[in-house]
Design goal:
Number of helices: 6
Radius of gyration: 19 Å
Shape: flat
Order of helices and strands: HHHHHH
Oligomer: single chain
Strand content: under 5%
Structural class: mainly alpha
Length: about 110
């Protein structure tokens, strides 16, 4: 993708208008799909080895915050334009909500 201006292969694959957004959309969909498949594997192993539960239902419920946090990190990375800065902001958000865990629960 770094040399897409020179080789022009990305434009051919994804079409000319807004091709960068299509590439990032496909990339993030693949990331969430791989994460979902890995979590299915681990929840299935937990269901077999530790305690019985509906592993597909649990995996689907766990994917909701994973997708939310992933999309929030992606949005912040477009604003901040730095991966390390985005990581710091996400850690600060996590610590903030960890501190407010009990007051938010009540």
């Amino acid at each position: 993708i770094q040399n897409d201006q020179d080789s022009r292969t990305i434009e051919i694959l994804f079409g000319i208008p807004n091709y960068r957004y299509k590439v990032w959309l496909i990339r993030i969909i693949l990331i969430f799909t791989i994460a979902y498949m890995m979590m299915i594997l681990f929840t299935f192993l937990s269901s077999v080895l530790i305690v019985r539960f509906q592993f597909l239902k649990v995996t689907s419920q766990v994917m909701i915050p994973v997708i939310f946090l992933g999309m929030m990190a992606f949005m912040l990375s477009t604003f901040i334009r730095n991966g390390n800065g985005t990581a710091v902001v996400m850690i600060i958000f996590g610590i903030f909500f960890l501190i407010l865990q009990d007051p938010l629960r009540k």
